[in-house]
Amino acid sequence: MIDENILGIAAGTLTSVSMLPQLIKVIREKNVDDLSWVMILVLILGLSLWVWYGFLKDELPIILSNAFAILVNGTLFICYLLFKNNSD
Length: 88
Hints:
By secondary structure, this protein is mainly alpha-helical.
């Protein structure tokens, strides 16, 4: 049987890094035409709620993985704001 902390860390790591390829692509190409700013903000809100939940439950894997995902998606949103005029 797999340890639940290992399972949580693995799940959190995979979901946290899932947006890194998109962020790298946006930074390299400076093109945000295909990004939805609404989706990014809703995702950041949901991730923030997960961090809050993690604090309430004192679950470090939930806190760390979702905090990292907020960092990645927050950076993606900043890139959206910086590069959105490049495509006009």
